Amino acid sequence: MVGSAISPVVKVCANPDTYRRMSGDMDVDAGRILEDAATLDEVGAEIVDVIADCLHGEPTKSEALGHQEFQLGYKTFEPIGPACLAG
């Protein structure tokens, strides 16, 4: 899994099997909704709590694991339109 060198990443996993396999790298188990173990409102409140904790300095799972991946993608475009024709 990946994190970010720029900002915290809060991982919400909606697949119960994936969460069980990777719970050490996921912040919220939203798959509990599918298994009738939690309501949408309960999981939503948990997400808000995780974000609030993060804002108060608590590391996300990615941060705690030291994930700091960074990728800068870019595209090049040919100029188009009237403003590009002046000059």
Notes on the structure:
The protein is 36% helix and 5% strand. The chain is mainly α. It has a two-stranded parallel sheet with strand order 1-2. It is extended.
How much helical structure, as a percent, in the residues? 25-40%
* Quaternary structure: single chain
Number of helices: 4
Radius of gyration: 19 Å
* Broad shape: extended
Please tell me the overall pLDDT. 87
Strand runs, count = 2
SSE order in H/E notation?
Answer: EHEHHH
Strand-residue proportion: under 5%
Read across the widest sheet, the strand sequence of neighbours is: 1-2
How can the largest sheet be summarized?
2 strands, parallel
What class, by secondary structure content? mainly alpha
Poorly predicted ranges (pLDDT <50, ≥5 residues)? Answer: none
Distance between the termini: 48 Å
Query: Could you say how many structural domains there are in total?
Result: 1
Describe what is shown at a glance:
With 87 residues, this protein is mainly α. The protein has 4 helices and 2 strands.
Q: What secondary-structure arrangement, pairings included, does this model have?
A:
Elements: E1 12-13, H1 16-22, E2 28-29, H2 40-55, H3 61-64, H4 82-85
Parallel strand pairs: 1-2
Give me some keywords for this one.
single chain, 87 residues, mainly alpha, 4 helices, 2 strands
